[in-house]
Amino acid sequence: TVSVTGGGSPLNFMWSNGQTAPTAINLQAGQYMVVISDTNNCQDSLLITVNNIGAPTIGNTLVQHILCHGDSQGTASIVVTGGLPPYAYAWNTGDTVAAISSLSAGIYTVTVTDSNNCQTIQSLWVLEPAPLSVTVSTFAASCSSCMDGIATINPTGGTPPYSAMWSNSASSGHSVTNLVPGTYWVQVTDSNGCMVADTFIIDLGVGSTAPQASQFRLFPNPNTGVFRLIIEPGGLADIRVEIYDQIGHLAWQMDKMQVNGINEQLNMQELTVGAYLIRVVVNGVSTVRKLVIR
Question: Which CATH class is domain 213-293?
Answer without folding.
Answer: mainly beta
